[in-house]
Structure formats: C-alpha cells, structure tokens
Amino acid sequence: MDFFSGDTNRNLNYMAELLECAARHKLLVNFHGATIPRGFQRTYPNLMSVEGVYGAEWYNNVPTFTDEAASHNATLPFTRNVIGSMDYTPCAFTDSQHPHITTDAHELALTVLYESGIQHLADRPESFLGQPEAIRRFLSELPAAWDDTMLLGGYPGEYVVMARQKGDRWYIAGINGQDCGMDVRLDLSRLPDAKYQATVITDSDDGWSITSPSECPESMHLMPRGGFIIMLETV
After folding, report:
1. What residue spans of the chain are helical by DSSP H?
2. pLDDT-wise least confident of 6-15, 54-63, 145-154
3. What is the band of 213 on the pLDDT scale with cuts at 50, 70, 90?
4. 158 with 74: CB under 8 angstroms?
5. Buried b vs exposed e over 107-122: b needs ≥16 C-beta within 10 Å?
C-alpha cells in the first residue's frame, strides 16, 4: 500500500484499520510511501515492512543524490533501520536514470545490512539471472528473518560492518560509504566459539571476487564505495 499523505491522526488510524482488515483476511502488509514504523507490528505481526526511507530513489531522481548514495547507505543502519523494518529496495546492479557509484558488492551487502520483513530487490530479473552462480545462490538462500544481529564496527556515513545469524550460519556484511578505499579489521570474538568455513564475496578490478571455501579473513579491504559479504558455516 503506497502514498500516505503524512503523519496525521487520520492516516495513522487508517493504517491501523488496514492492518486489522488485512489480518482478518490473512494478508501480509507493506506500507510504502509511509511514515517510519510506529510500533504497529507489535499488535499486527502481519506488517512485514515500512518504507519510510529514501532508498533506491537515490539512483533515480537527481545526480546530486546519486553522488551521496554510498554515504547515505552507510548512515541508515545507525538511524532509520534502528527503529524497525525498512523497505529500502536494495541490491540494484544496473544503472537507472543516473550511473551507479556503488560497486556490485556494496549493493549485495545491503541485503544483509538492512533488516526488512521482506526484501524487494530493486533490479530487473535479467540482471539477477545474469550474475555468477554463486551470487544467484546467495540471493536464493538469503534468510527472511534473523536469529541474532551484531554491529562489528562502523561510523555513520563512513562505513558499517554487521553480523547476522540464521541457524548455524553467520552472514557478515560491510560497506564503504567513502570515496577512498579502506581496510577494516574483523573482530569476531563475540561470535560463538566454533570452527567456521568461509565464503567471501567482494569486489575485484574486473567484477566479483568469490573465494570458497576458506578461513575467515582477519581484515577486509574495501574499494571506494565498495562492500563485501562473508558467509560462515560451522564445520
């Protein structure tokens, strides 16, 4: 459901009525073009996500937004997404109205960094189908909900590294919001003590760099506006 005209009592009451009606009919709801989450999901668990964010529009509307997209992406985990599910519409590999400045690995990492009850991936089907098999498999196996979340490092607008758990698998994702490359140290001491096998997905000069199986690296190099994902499985 899209385009609510503000945070008025009338609109908030309308949203509650819509959720109640949808629940009676066993329908899931995503409020788009709406205010930030207001706690409705505690009463109506059929509310999957809320937009309440300027997401993939940063690549569509004006070039000055696109120039700041990477920094914006590295800010949202500390701000908007803290208060509830966020339907950002992440993971756009192809250009829209303005050329991308984020790398493919940066875009892929958003699917883990951003929590949403449903992830609406923002690209054409042929774009996803044209990716390497390891990327297609990653997207097809991406969990819809998480058992645990840890912030491993970051600063708003500069970079962020997060770890999310589903069952016996950990997903570690990071993005660089800056126009220069950087190295980030991975402190995994808070993860359960176990032996892990890692699959590392990141950027290379000519596209993807995919390494599996391997030991988990102690640090990662991020390209300007780049990113990475590490999948850890117990062995």
Report:
1. 9-24, 40-43, 63-67, 69-73, 104-113, 125-129, 133-141
2. 54-63
3. confident
4. yes
5. bbbbbbbbbbbebbbb
Does this model's pTM top 0.85? yes
DSSP letter assigned to residue 59: G
- Cβ 56 vs Cβ 90: under 8 Å: yes
Tokens of 191: 């993860």
**Alpha helices, DSSP H only, in 50-169?**
63-67, 69-73, 104-113, 125-129, 133-141
Nearest Cα neighbor of 201 from 181, 179, 184, 220 is 220
Residue 48, both tokens? 């999957």
Which residues participate in catalysis according to the annotation?
2, 57
Q: State residue 139's pLDDT score.
A: 96
Predicted local confidence at residue 229, as pLDDT: 98
**Res 95 pLDDT > 90:** no
Helix, coil or strand: residue 76: helix
Closest CA to 96 of 124, 71, 133, 119: 124
Residue (of 123, 105, 131, 76) closest to 225 by Cα position: 105
C-beta separation of 175 from 73 below 8 A: yes
Q: Which residues pair with 49 in a beta bridge?
A: 30
pLDDT at 6: 87
Q: Do you find a cis peptide bond into 213, omega within 30 degrees of 0? A: yes
Residue 57 CA to chain centroid, in angstroms? 15
